[in-house]
């Protein structure tokens, strides 16, 4: 059998393999460069960037829980100008695709970032309308299908790069939200963002996180994520980037079989910084074992 073909494409952009990083768990790759050869990644997906610097929420803002972690970072970021000069400049040296995650409190803020990035070396935009940890904007757009449709449509009209809408699992019907993003013109969707959770310190009788609630990530959320990717894949024709608790190549393959064209490693990289490399090798080994020539032949083939 010839060497398996791991390449995939989304909106005309080709990726050498289907593996990327979940936003906010990889920075822009600098901190991981000791463990990960960025040239081997299908894409680097960056931490969310806003039009101006955000300080994020008060500490404590991360805590471990059974099967994962809760975070309430609140989208701390240096703002798009620093990001372009520092992070995009850094990423230019690697032979990988760059997906920039965009956040905002208002429609104008999202549009300002999208416009600022339009002439930069960015392959795709991922729009975070699903962060549970900021008070205004973000999740409000992602929990109402009409609002999601409208913001997707506005972004699509000014974006020069393909647009991925990142969906929240904190909704009743993921299929309805996926359809709203597709109707608004999204080129792809990514899911899932974190599931809203809470942890209480029973001795002090206080909330563990200063924000009280936080977003749950890690292996415990994987079955929910796989189910939602499958439901979204039944509802729309646009490609899906699947994530949520991926800890191994086997986990990543589950998402692909459920209907994901690409997969993202997230919080489990804190536990195993080499995870993305292991996923790429593991998908290739699986394809050899099952005599699959193209990874695209696996997408959505669960029976
Ligand atoms: C510390 C941390 C920061 C995150 N920051 C962002 C972010 O800036 N933008 C975003 O869209 N998602 C963010 N996420 C969500 C992840 O990209 C991912 O959707 C989620 O954690 C589920 O995947 P996982 O269980 O593999 O981590 C963050 C997650 C964590 C744990």
Structural features, described:
With 303 residues, the protein is an alpha/beta fold. It has 9 helices and 16 strands. 53% of the residues are buried. The mean pLDDT is 96. It binds flavin mononucleotide. Flavin mononucleotide binds next to loops. Flavin mononucleotide is lined by residues 22-25, 47-48, 71, 73, 75, 101, 128, 131, 166, 193-194, 217-218, 221, 243-246, 266-268.
Task: Give the secondary structure arrangement, pairings included.
Elements: E1 8-10, E2 13-15, E3 19-21, E4 43-45, E5 62-65, E6 68-71, H1 80-91, E7 97-102, H2 107-116, E8 124-128, H3 139-142, H4 145-158, E9 163-166, H5 174-183, E10 188-191, E11 195-198, E12 200-201, E13 206-207, E14 213-217, H6 222-235, E15 240-243, H7 249-258, E16 262-265, H8 268-271, H9 275-289
Parallel strand pairs: 3-16, 4-7, 7-8, 8-9, 9-10, 10-15, 15-16
Antiparallel strand pairs: 1-2, 5-6, 6-14, 11-14, 12-13
Helix pairs in contact: 2-4, 4-5, 5-6, 6-7, 7-9
Bound molecules: flavin mononucleotide.
Main beta-sheet annotation? 8 strands, parallel
Give the neighbour order of strands across the main sheet.
3-16-15-10-9-8-7-4
The level 1 CATH classification is: Alpha Beta
Q: Count the DSSP helices.
A: 9
Please provide a brief summary of the model.
This protein is an alpha/beta fold and 303 residues long. The chain contains 9 helices and 16 strands. It binds flavin mononucleotide (FMN).
Task: Offer a few descriptive terms.
four-stranded antiparallel sheet, single chain, eight-stranded parallel sheet, alpha/beta, binds flavin mononucleotide, TIM Barrel
